[in-house]
Amino acid sequence: MEDGSAGPRMETNSTYNIPLVQRSSRENEMVCIFGTGDFGKALGSKMLQCGYDVVFGSRSPNNANLVPKGSEVLSHHEAAQRSKIIFLAIQRDHYSFLSRLAHALQGKILVDVSNNLKLNQYPESNAEYLAQLVPGAEVVKAFNTVSAWALQSGTLDASRQVFVCGHDSKSKQMVMEIVRTLGLTPLDQGSLMAAKEVENYPLQLFPMWKIPMYISSVLAAVIFLYCVVTEVIYSYVTTGEDYTYAIMIAIPNRVFPIVSLILLALVYLAGIIAAIIQLYRGTKYSRFPDWLDKWMLCRKQLGLVALGYAFLHVIYTLVIPIRYYVRWWMNNWAITQIKNNATAPFDPNYAWRSDAYLAPGILGFFFYVLLGITSLPSVSNIVNWREFRFVQSKLGYLTLILCTGHTLVYGWDRFIYGPFYRWHLPPAFVLSLIIPCAVLSLKFILIAPCVDRIITQIRQGWERNSKNPKKDISENGKTTV
Amino acid sequence: MEDGSAGPRMETNSTYNIPLVQRSSRENEMVCIFGTGDFGKALGSKMLQCGYDVVFGSRSPNNANLVPKGSEVLSHHEAAQRSKIIFLAIQRDHYSFLSRLAHALQGKILVDVSNNLKLNQYPESNAEYLAQLVPGAEVVKAFNTVSAWALQSGTLDASRQVFVCGHDSKSKQMVMEIVRTLGLTPLDQGSLMAAKEVENYPLQLFPMWKIPMYISSVLAAVIFLYCVVTEVIYSYVTTGEDYTYAIMIAIPNRVFPIVSLILLALVYLAGIIAAIIQLYRGTKYSRFPDWLDKWMLCRKQLGLVALGYAFLHVIYTLVIPIRYYVRWWMNNWAITQIKNNATAPFDPNYAWRSDAYLAPGILGFFFYVLLGITSLPSVSNIVNWREFRFVQSKLGYLTLILCTGHTLVYGWDRFIYGPFYRWHLPPAFVLSLIIPCAVLSLKFILIAPCVDRIITQIRQGWERNSKNPKKDISENGKTTV
Amino acid sequence: MEDGSAGPRMETNSTYNIPLVQRSSRENEMVCIFGTGDFGKALGSKMLQCGYDVVFGSRSPNNANLVPKGSEVLSHHEAAQRSKIIFLAIQRDHYSFLSRLAHALQGKILVDVSNNLKLNQYPESNAEYLAQLVPGAEVVKAFNTVSAWALQSGTLDASRQVFVCGHDSKSKQMVMEIVRTLGLTPLDQGSLMAAKEVENYPLQLFPMWKIPMYISSVLAAVIFLYCVVTEVIYSYVTTGEDYTYAIMIAIPNRVFPIVSLILLALVYLAGIIAAIIQLYRGTKYSRFPDWLDKWMLCRKQLGLVALGYAFLHVIYTLVIPIRYYVRWWMNNWAITQIKNNATAPFDPNYAWRSDAYLAPGILGFFFYVLLGITSLPSVSNIVNWREFRFVQSKLGYLTLILCTGHTLVYGWDRFIYGPFYRWHLPPAFVLSLIIPCAVLSLKFILIAPCVDRIITQIRQGWERNSKNPKKDISENGKTTV
After folding, report:
1. Rounded to whole angstroms, how far apart are CA atoms C307 and C295?
2. N or C: where does chain B have the smaller number of CB atoms within 10 Å of the terminal CB?
3. Shortest Cα–Cα distance, B56 to chain A (Å)
4. How far is B151 from chain C (nearest CA, A)?
5. Minimal Cα distance from B165: which residue of A?
6. Which chain B residues contact residue C480 at CB under 8 A?
7. What are phi and psi of C451, to 5 degrees?
8. Other CB atoms closer than 10 Å to residue B419's CB: what's the count?
9. A339-371: per-residue pLDDT in tens?
10. How is residue B71 annotated by DSSP?
11. What percent of chain A shows pLDDT beyond 90?
């Protein structure tokens, strides 16, 4: 209730305001809904608006005043006989009464719209349980991702997709047709065995983001502590200076770019490890280890988390001149020079250095943002496979090179400059370069002509240890007979 | 003409360049179009490309040279007999001749594609008027959101959605099938009573944005004037200083964050008021007052306007060090110190303060942007209801807390520091904190366990004054029998 | 392999993990796939999951262990007899054997999924070649944009669209139904003549972006050289100063805004030229010259490239105060004043000037970003034609006016101030104003009531030289009978 937002207003208004007083006398398709709770009523109301005739099945058909105008309420038994399709807007706990109706439900399509309160609450999915209860009916799982509120208000922002699964194709087709008529998008999920997953879906909270978020949080925490030790505590111990205010801006602004760079490198490390495994095994036909599969499937999320950190780094950097510390320091610099009567001459070397580290950083961020935009679903939907690969691979590596270069030039002579090695610990940014440099070096080896040729062959189906070497060279994995 | 942009090029090219010289001899579905104007021709041309046979009905069937190659032109009467479906690409003013064709149109599907020049131009919609004129035919409203230019050039960016409505389901299905075949997305809008709204749709100009834009403009104007009075005019009256240049950057940069914060708070105030009303009434089954309904439906737009202002605030803030005034002031600070021989020592307190107000501001903006990205239709389409709630509610409140914190720390001691109260008026940012603090306090009360439990019960269907207390605990509004 | 990203996880998991051990005994639709390579197997596997029965046709039906569990492998001849629809997952080079199967393929639907390695590799498309080989079958082109990897892993980010073309509508409908059942989006591309383009599609690399990228690169290179000559080389020749570090930040930050402004003006110049041509010809019914057609079709891309340059300009500008050169210069300014004992008084004129050029720049960038967001496919899909025109035309011109104003105020007195004309060459920003100012002046003339009236008439179908002046006033190109 605290949230939710208006969808395309067209729909909003039409489903919200148009009274359905006058019904045409023509014969419409009849649908039956068991259950007159919130969801049943919302679904019935929406269906009436979309031209269906609706009959409700209820334990107590007499509180008919509650159902949407234009629909009927009958007993379960009578209602079932009126329609080929029956929506069960009831909770799993109450399914048991359906076994008594088995005869009336023979040959019907039962649409299970139920949800659970917890992931994997029951051993089998609600829909499979229903199929066992009423073996004579076809069970189709659908609509569980749509909320009553969304149906009523027409604000379907978060739930336009309706996952549909079931054993019988024809039944699924009929349900998917209804989904389309209601203005929603059906997505066929296969047989009823997918029902468990379909039921778990609305209970999930960004499952693909968990690993990337976890990795980035741990990384950020470790680097934050490292920086606090080598900067704040070191300053305090050695000179007694109070540098604690650095934990607000200065240290986060070290942590963010480091995490971002490492995550970006991890995105590409997965592909490199996959290529090395394929090279080593000499075939593409054996499966990758599970951890690598998972890693490869969450690369998009890893990359977007990396972009988030990069975004923060950019803003934290741009506010630098507004900070009191920096203003005071600039001011102090001028005053000190005056007092010592020693003006610092302009050093073009320093000008080169400061500009040369900023430029690749900005360009890197630009391509980073471009990568982010192309991973928006609506953008990635209209590019073809070759374009998608070009953006994600070519532009991705360009981004990695620019960001690594940015960090290297930022380092400049600090890599070897003693005072930066406090307590013999290297500055954090030095550590951040390890993975990116390794990724870029390995990639450099992998694209060497002699290695690249072998990988290309393997990806086209060639197998090193195969007796009958089949070869199916083709762009897209299309293959020979 | 001045604008428009290329859609997915695939389509662009295919509809634009491929000549349709050779038609297959097989029987295609035949469609009839009345009217050989721009829209009729564009529609016919597109249909030919998608495999339909097209016949035009015209008053003067002899200027056949104008219609797309591959189609025929006949008199209205003859053309009508060739096809089950007839598209009326004619203006409402000319519909009257159709009543003479009533016999030929008996049992046909008439697709009304017409638009009007003004909102609510006629008492009844064009489609309903048509249905009265030709009672023997099934009228379906469709295609009015698509322009001739878009059909011809294939640049359908702004109009891929086709709203379809009509009394007869079968007729609608047939029209929707054609819509899909043309590569467009049909959206069923219910019975012909929705036609008025469908006809008004292409004449609307961001109706959901009107209230948020109005509120934000009024707020911005009022705060701008307030700042001009307390800063520019006050300076001039008391010290004679010319501070007018502040109206370009300095004062807008006070107005933007204030408007942004207030709008963001208003987004969440709606939900809080709704919760209080439900608590007071003890039920969720009575409708909210109309103003609250409207408010809740435009929260997304309110939030996005707030994000716009926040974006402007960020850039206005980041240019601060580039401004001449600020550079001069920095410079003057150093010179004054030298002249007075009194160097300001470094004050860690000030460093804390300046960093502590910047950090939550940056983080707040980061989450603000995240909220904005998730409200993009293609992103919100792939998150489930729970995830959408998480982002919009949890992250939304986090953003509000961070931005309110940012403003509070910015204020620091200025809340009580006399000189900032010019003419006894508090600085504008003090006023901006009223609504956010109220929202956060009320939210804090509402999530207190004892209150939260009651709200949860109410939202699950419990009613305080109900005699037969029904209870339908379920995640998604699914309910008991 | 190096890239790709996880699609909606729902699908990912369900297609990835769910074993298909138990098949229902009911009769499912049977599909046949010729070819047991990567693509054939991936397609078969996906179809099994979506409820189809799959039979593979193979030269050597005995290596049945390779095909997905639940499917059969037969000889081509036997397999063909089992299904109405046959997918050819084989390369064009191997099509020849199909002519021997002509009898078995009589009346079947052959789905050509093949791709080529190069654009226009063969004189006719693979699908048309197939239609010639097997004249008794209906050939439908489809699925060539989908990769085996995407089908297997369910990560369909880059390839949810399936282009379908073919001569026979019924066959296309059947194939499109399968596409929908697999959770993909079919897009009807018309007759088999579109096959060539459909086959070229996955080999294209951003064809609509080529011209805008080319124009912007040439412009950027020319302006960069111009700036290097008038600033770096001029400084070196006249004063011997080493100003080379400017090529990292300072000069790019002149190039980016200039390119951005010119590109933005070019977006609107196309529409203005179109209007002038229509005015001159007195009709809208003659086609524009080809170059203008192409220009108008790539305006969106031009505008987005312009936005990219504007984005870079903004960040390059915001880092200014961080640069060593700027810090040194600020510092030096203070020291010089002290030494000369001549403090610069505050000049409100300068404050006005610096603020007055920043403000329209920021606002211009804000509207620029807004334009970019509304051109995201998912956003432009939910606005109607009038709203799209409003944003792209009204807001677009507002952006152009703000950005031109930003540049004019930036120039201020430098337009006439001698020292800026090095070697008698005007500063680059002066040149950048030519096209924008021309566009705005012409637009100003075109919206003058007397001119605007004629253009409106022409766009409503009026022709100056027409003998029978027909008039079809309507908002959307809908027209008279």
Report:
1. 18
2. N
3. 30
4. 11
5. A50
6. 35, 37, 90-91, 94
7. -75, -45
8. 6
9. 887 777 888 888 888 899 999 999 999 999 999
10. -
11. 36
